[in-house]
Structure prediction request, 210 residues.
Amino acid sequence: MARYTGSKTKLSKRIGRNLFLKGARSYSAKDDYAKRPFKAGEHGKSRFARTSEYGKQLLEKQSIRFIYGLQEKQLSNLFKKSFKATGDTGKIALGMLERRFDNIVYRGGLANSRSQARQLVNHGHFTINGKNVNIPSYTLEVGDIIEIKANKKSNAFWTNFNLEVPAGIPQWLDNSTKLTVKVINLPLDEDLPQEIKIAAVVELYSRKVA
Prediction:
């Protein structure tokens, strides 16, 4: 299945909250979702009140897909691994998502959105521990270091790059060295995205893949 290329605002409206998919614009009062945070049509404002529990679980699953830019098969496979691991399935799944290559590029302040980070990874802008890696889903471990390739640093993108989104770098990452991000710890519970109702997604997938 091809990756979604339509309106990112529509995805936020489908879920019922701002997923911050549009980089700096998502944080602006001019953002389309900020001006009209509901689906178009006369019933747009009230549709979430009528959603069943199963429907809410589906919406929460979709929110994860949209936030991290995943296909259904990718997310399903990730939960298969999470169910097999020992511990809290939801926290394990979120931890794996947070340690994706493209997500760490974004979290570490080297991109203004996950979609931009994914594009940079695909185009081979980075190395991990000095080795070329262009797989956005690659999972990083403690001690791994992301660096911009030497032959890319002179590109117009990097010479003109400005971080335009709130620079809340999580404590499990270190970006004190310019244009470099190091994984210094695994993400703790408080580092995981609190807005995602992960228990609902675990319950949904427990009927599908467990």
Summary: The longest helix spans residues 53-68.
